[in-house]
Amino acid sequence: MGKEQRDAAPDPRGILNATLIAADGSPTNFTSWKMTGNAGGNHLVEPVRGTYNEGGLHAEHLGWHLPGFGDNDWESGAPTDGFAGADARFYRTVVQLNMPQDYDANLAFQLSTEKKAKLRAQLYVNGYQFAKTLPYISNETTFPVFPGILDYNGNNTIGLSVWAMDEAGGRVDVAWKVMGVHRSAFDPSSI
């Protein structure tokens, strides 16, 4: 927020420098990077969300986080089951909400894991990257989702990437949190 709101030259985005070092500290024979860009290249798969919504995860390149992606051939699994080893996994589900008329509910997602777990988790709500947590660095666990992202009377695609960075693996509990419910004339479907 506000990154480009000044008169000076804008800061560059992306990878500026990287060095790969072998586990034993010896030099590597690494000579070049291969950059894959975003899903669809210059022809965005989802132009509404744009390029800044996506990072470098394989799941994002293939559009796994977007509503309508065909996941029928996927194995069933849950982030609460966890997995062992340094690995990355992507989970998705579709949740139907049926909010009564004349109610305005403030909803959030709660991502919980071991406080010192060496993992990165990113939450996607209807294709939007909505939360990112690194439990070994920060303690942010609650991520409010504002109206217009969730469909309060329809299907919602929820995606979660979990990237475990050591052999301990990764496990993330995902829960809804109701921040407040108010009686009002607000109609979320009008957004």
UniProtKB/TrEMBL annotation:
Keywords in alphabetical order, please.
Answer: Glycosidase, Hydrolase
The name on file for this protein is Galactose-binding domain-like protein
Domain of life from the UniProt record:
Eukaryota
The beginning of the lineage is: Eukaryota, Fungi, Dikarya, Ascomycota, Pezizomycotina
SUPFAM superfamilies xref list: Galactose-binding domain-like (SSF49785)
The UniProt record lists the Beta-galactosidase jelly roll domain at: 58-167
**One GO MF term:** beta-galactosidase activity
Q: What InterPro entries does the record point to?
A: BetaGal_jelly_roll_dom, Galactose-bd-like_sf
